[in-house]
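Retro notes, item 3 of 5
We never archived the inputs for the beta-D-fucofuranose complex last cycle. Fixing that now. Sequence and ligand:
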Amino acid sequence: MRMRRAWIIGLLALTAALCGCTKQQEEPEDTLLYEDEIEDSDDYIVVGFAQVGSESDWRLANTQSFRDTFREDNGYYLLFEDGQQKQENQIKAIRNFILQEVDYIILDPIVETGWDAVLQEAKAAGIPVILSDRLVVVEDESLYTCWVGSDFEEEGRIAGRWLRDYLEDQGRGSDEIRIVTLQGTLGSSAQIGRTEGFDEILAAQGNWNMLERMSGDFTLTKGREVMEYFLDTYEDIDVVVCENDNMAFGAIEAIQDAGKTCGPDGDMILISFDAAKSAFEAMQRGELNMDVECNPLLGPMVEEIIQKLERGEDVDRVQYVEEKCFDAFMDLEGILESRTY
Ligand code: GYE
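Structure as it came back at the time:
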């Protein structure tokens, strides 16, 4: 079901006319460049990517990884749709991909539920769906081919274990520890896993008190608002768990505006997830204690899967990305040199 370049252009124009909201329309220069390069005989693997949005540093690095991988000179034509953190936009994008008869659909589902109907449509059209980053919960598991992403629950456990050991080292192992959590988008795999993993460790510590959890939707602005609310509501907070870096940056701003401090020498311990470069810089400035890595560079892994499927080979149903954790006491300058996101 390969599509010729000229055919794709016709379809792109049709889609733009139908939905009036495609990335191609927002960035006409992409299409123009493409039209200049028409060679009727060339075949491409056409991939439609329904991305969550552009809410975080992690997300931008993730999008870039797909753009870098699925290039025309690499044999691909990538149709990219930014869902702007709305499930309905992602569903619309998938329907457009089906209409355009793409060869593969890559879906990074904003939340886990609500995908049965549209994935059924993709299946009926014979288009394989590869899940990337987050997972879906569907009744019929055959609605997607495979999933590549992080073990979010383990990330949550890593954060919890680190906190337990750190408090122990500080001689606070049996003090009452008052914790607040800034959660990611509720119902997303990253939020569910990180919350549950951390909870597992928390449940075993009789002296840890989770004061409140609230969603900051993985963004700096909402993270800041939630932290302002926590600071207004609770007088003593010992630990702030942020389920991603951008919310941690918002929390740092709120804490500093309130005349308080966080980090290894601060009033509060700050824990985050993702380990983007900007978070390393926050650790270097002494504002953040630790960060659990979440690798956004999933493009090459998805490409490998597509190549296998093209050759008719079996693919693993689940593939985890390798991840580490970093804290402010490491040689951050040395580590930063080799970080790519
Ligand atoms: O942690 C966050 C992003 O799903 C792993 O989504 C991803 C999360 C990531 O917005 O920064």
